[in-house]
Design goal:
This protein is α+β, with helices and mostly antiparallel strands and 229 residues long. It contains four helices and nine strands. The chain has helices at residues 41-50, 61-85, 135-148, 159-195, and strands spanning 2-6, 9-13, 18-26, 29-38, 96-98, 103-107, 112-120, 123-132, 153-154. The strands form two sheets. It has a five-stranded mixed sheet. A four-stranded antiparallel sheet has the order 5-6-7-8. α2 (61-85) runs parallel beside α4 (159-195).
């Protein structure tokens, strides 16, 4: 993403951060040099004030503020959706949460991994992209990266158009997180019902051996001790 502030200053992104860049001409070619680096757009906007950049010609101050608020709202909505999943700080077992066809968040016994898929000889392969201690950090890191990777420039693109991009992205990730919550609760419910199955209840089909109940491991009848008077 690139946001033009004036003829000599702009905000830009790489996969990891927001940048304040200054324009210069070298050997007849225009170049943009990164001078300060920030984690969020809000921090970068404050950085413009610290650098005493006040002459806004490309994007206007209220437009930049609108985009900052929209990104803050995105982060808050995603954080609430992550909390609703109930996923633990550290994974107790291997888990996989698909977010779309190309991205999922998986876990091993010590971390959460943002994975991206690729095709290898017609087979899908998942590669680790970033690694995080918590599920929340993995999701939020992915959200911020996806926003930074938007291939838009302001101007000519408008704030409204960028916000529409963010709306569509937000809808997709919230739906994926809520779906993972429903799937996890359904699995837990099945496990709970299996643990508390009463004698005489029918045995689930997946526990039958060749269509018949499993044989007991010990055919001996229980022995009862009777206390003598």
């Amino acid at each position: 993403m690139k946001i033009l502030i004036n003829a000599d200053t702009r905000l830009a992104t790489d996969p990891h951060q927001w940048l304040i860049q200054n324009r210069r001409v070298a050997n007849g070619k225009e170049r943009w040099d990164s001078v300060v680096f920030y984690k969020t757009l809000s921090d970068a906007a404050l950085g413009l004030a610290r650098l005493k950049v006040y002459d806004y010609e490309g994007v206007l101050p209220h437009e930049l503020e609108t985009l900052c608020r929209r990104l803050d709202t995105l982060a808050a909505n995603v954080s609430r959706a992550v909390a609703r999943t109930g996923l633990h700080r550290r994974p107790k077992s291997k888990t996989s949460v698909p977010l779309n066809e190309q991205i999922r968040i998986a876990s091993d016994h010590s971390q959460w991994i943002v994975e991206r898929s690729r095709s290898v000889r017609g087979n899908r392969k998942w590669d680790g992209h970033t690694f995080h201690q918590t599920f929340a950090h993995a999701v939020m890191g992915l959200v911020r990266e996806q926003v930074r990777e938007l291939d838009v420039a302001l101007p000519p693109c408008s704030i409204e158009a960028i916000c529409q991009h963010i709306d569509r992205f937000e809808s997709g990730i919230l739906a994926a997180l809520d779906q993972s919550k429903l799937a996890r609760h359904s699995d837990e419910g099945e496990k709970t019902r299996a643990q508390f199955r009463l004698p005489g209840d029918p045995i689930p089909a997946d526990r039958l051996v060749n269509g018949s109940p499993p044989k007991p491991s010990d055919d001996l009848r229980p022995t009862y001790l009777v206390a003598s008077n």
